[in-house]
Amino acid sequence: MPFTAFGEPEDPLSYYSSTSNITDDQSLTIIKEKTTSPTATTPSVELSAQPVDNGDQPEVGGKSTADTSAPQISSPSTDNTTQPQADLEQPIVKEVEAEAEIEVETQEEDTPHPEIVTICDEIGNKLGSVSSSDCLDAAFDKPRFYSNKHRPLLEKHFYASPELVNAPRILFLGGIHGDEYSSVSLSFKWLKILEQSHNGVYDWHFMPLTNPDGLLQKKSTRVNANNVDLNRNFIPSETSINPIKHWQTYAKKRARYYPGTKPLSEPETQAIHKLIHEFKPDIIVSVHAPHGILDYDGGITPPQKLGPLRLRQLGTYPGSLGNYGWFVKQTPVMTIELKHAGIMPSKSDINLMWTDLIHWIKLRTEGDGTLIARKTSDQ
Question: Which UniProt keywords apply (predicted)?
């Protein structure tokens, strides 16, 4: 069975509001005390791309008083050969499926969309390691999806070379939880690395901030503006227990884990669902914090490490992206859990994680350019 009953983790941020927990190459940046550093060039290949110099700046830290004890997790089965249950989504999909194919529209050069300018200013005012200009320089595609408060969900597509018809497709998601600052900032850093090094070998789609309302509140929250935990709002694969029952029983009705009234009730999760349906990624990469591990749900051999993060497969929660991606959509999901929610990884760790990720994708790619995951899911 894909589901293992877990106790839910507590608020991740309170531990990181103390400077006693900061390592030598890190420091805590208060929201109004933002710093910048010069930008370095990067090589022109994805595998060896180096991070820009401003990637090692400390992240903005919000204060929280919640307990940060580690989640009580039972040992799940690590048998990733369990067959996904793709038919479970059909009744819900009909309510949210788009009629037309998704078409990514890029901005005209030097003319960013006004909504992108606005949200980039908000992000720059919130985070100490992503400036408004950093955000605008990404040249995001024309907005198509919006949050509860009608903020655009930023997207950037990096197309594979036209002759590579089987190029691996990677969907990258950051900031599903608004109080995990480092996940948002790391997504922007890697997006910039890819911008400078993309060589057309892989087909990437980035959504670096999937919960803008949660991040951009005065006090950032895990949940979205509708008080829903987006990482419990996807279609569950389980029939024996649904997200609401899990929330009532195992999460003890804690508000930060509320899964919503029904799966895909939120515009943010509907957007991700549509992206998966149309883009058909071979792998989904999602960045979180602060457990300091690498989690994985899927049928192909996962990497044993990404930089300092070591593989520790936790199983899945009903309605989580990992549960939905693999057991419903038959798409492997790699969950990167950074060590700190309020502190950025060091520049060297940012580089190592990126390099290890690209190396794993390369190893999992067959001679014809098709990611092994694609053929595994088609069997």
Answer: Hydrolase, Metalloprotease, Protease, Zinc
Q: What is the DSSP letter of 106?
A: P
Residue with tokens 């109004």: 32
Whether omega before 290 lies within 30 degrees of 0, making that bond cis, reads yes
Question: Which domains does the chain carry?
Answer: 14-378 (3.40.630.10)
Q: What is the pLDDT of residues 307-346, one digit of tens each?
A: 999 999 877 788 999 999 999 999 999 999 999 999 999 9
3-state secondary structure of 364: coil
User: For residues 224 and 211, is the Cβ–Cβ distance under 8 A?
Assistant: yes
Mean pLDDT highest for which of 103-107, 238-242, 351-355?
351-355
pLDDT per residue as tens digits for the range 272-294: 999 999 999 999 999 999 999 99
Contact, 192 vs 139, CB < 8 A? no
CA distance 200 to 216: 33
- Residues linked to residue 205 through DSSP beta bridges, in sequence order: 157, 171
